[in-house]
Write a structure and sequence with these properties.
The structure is a single chain. This protein is an alpha+beta fold and about 140 residues long. The protein has a single domain, classed as Alpha-Beta Plaits, CATH 3.30.70. It is about 35% helix and about 30% strand. It is built from four helices and five strands, in the order E-H-E-E-H-E-E-H-H. The protein has a five-stranded mixed beta sheet with strand order 4-1-3-2-5, with helices on both faces. A hairpin with a 3-residue loop joins strand 2 and strand 3. It is globular and about 40 Å long. The mean pLDDT is about 90. InterPro entries: Acylphosphatase-like_dom_sf, BLUF_domain. This is Blue light sensor protein. GO terms for molecular function: blue light photoreceptor activity; FAD binding.
């Protein structure tokens, strides 16, 4: 079994409400736990940035589900690669909302202090998520 890491960005659909994040997280955590997929989700009321880790088949199937999820628009794969270990193995799906704590990291890994994953490289997005996971409390 090969482990892979997939990082993608998407825009929330116009029908997605702030309260929908709880349902999305509960569903993702249940699915990911059953499929041995781990990862981190960042969301700021406009954009999603997510890292998925696990077996190639299960990460690909999870991403396929996301591609067909009407809550996501303009989905862009930022990075996909084989990896030797997971970095978010403690979380079936960690959630990182935007806060004043994330602003300096946005500036470090992108061109502005505003969170916009479309302005980030796949590696920058991944490095930012690693730092977020290590320094900011994850829900």
């Amino acid at each position: 079994m090969f482990l892979v890491r997939l990082v993608y960005a998407s825009r929330k659909s116009p029908d997605f409400n702030e309260s929908d994040i709880e349902q999305l997280l509960a569903s993702a955590r249940k699915h990911n736990l059953a499929n041995h997929v781990t990862g981190l989700l960042c969301f700021n009321r406009k954009y999603f940035l997510q890292c998925l880790e696990g077996s190639r088949a299960r990460v690909n199937a999870t991403y396929h589900n996301i591609l067909n999820d009407p809550r996501h628009n303009d989905i862009v794969m930022l990075d996909y690669r084989e990896v030797d270990s997971r970095k978010f193995d403690a979380w079936s799906m960690g959630y990182m909302p935007e806060s004043s704590l994330t602003t300096p990291l946005n500036l470090r890994y992108s061109g502005t202090p505003e969170f916009d994953p479309y302005d980030m490289s796949g590696e920058s997005a991944y490095q930012m998520m690693l730092e977020l996971g290590a320094t900011v409390p994850v829900i």
